[in-house]
């Protein structure tokens, strides 16, 4: 992407839009992470307009799949998400938004949406001797 400014703030910059791989409903998964602790807070979904709003306002906006409307985290609860960084994954089918979370991120009132579900039983993997020291 070039560094030239995109001056039409009413639509998503086409240089960003062309990099996205939307699902069949025009959505991309957005992982929301606390910027300083790296805690994963929640997963939401964004279409091009929600992405545009997030990039241009500094607050996270999602598309509600159940209500079929935009919602900006914190507008009713006060638990706002202030954007610190925004990145696409290598395939363009997921977004990582680092935020400064005010209050709970989850609608249950928990800090993270991954608290209520709890840990699942899993076989823990281990590196081989040859893999030690590799990232």
* Broad structural category: alpha+beta
- Sum up the overall morphology in one term: globular
Could you tell me the number of beta strands? 6
The whole-angstrom Rg is: 17 Å
Q: What would CATH call the architecture of the domain at 24-111?
A: Roll
Q: What is the third-level CATH name, the topology of the domain at 24-111? A: Ubiquitin-like (UB roll)
| Average pLDDT rating | 90
The CATH class assignment of the domain at 24-111 is: Alpha Beta
Binding site for Mg(2+): 89, 91, 93
Enzyme class: hydrolase
InterPro entries: PRA-CH, PRib_AMP_CycHydrolase_dom, PRib_AMP_CycHydrolase_sf
Subunit structure: Homodimer.
Written description of the protein model:
This is Phosphoribosyl-AMP cyclohydrolase. This protein has a domain at 24-111: Roll (Ubiquitin-like (UB roll)). The protein is an alpha+beta fold. The chain has 3 helices and 6 strands, in the order H-E-E-H-E-E-E-E-H. Helix content is 13%, strand content 28%.
């Amino acid at each position: 992407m070039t560094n030239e400014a995109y001056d039409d703030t009413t639509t998503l910059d086409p240089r960003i839009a062309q990099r996205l791989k939307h699902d069949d409903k025009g959505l991309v998964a957005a992982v929301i992470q606390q910027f300083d602790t790296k805690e994963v807070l929640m997963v939401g979904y964004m279409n091009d307009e929600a992405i545009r709003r997030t990039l241009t306002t500094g607050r996270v906006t999602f598309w509600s799949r159940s209500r079929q409307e935009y919602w900006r985290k914190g507008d009713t609860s006060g638990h706002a998400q202030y954007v610190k960084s925004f990145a696409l994954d290598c395939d363009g089918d997921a977004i990582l938004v680092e935020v400064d979370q005010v209050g709970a991120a989850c609608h249950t009132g928990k800090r993270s949406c991954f608290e209520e579900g709890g840990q699942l039983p899993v076989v823990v993997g281990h590196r081989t001797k040859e893999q030690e020291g590799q990232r």
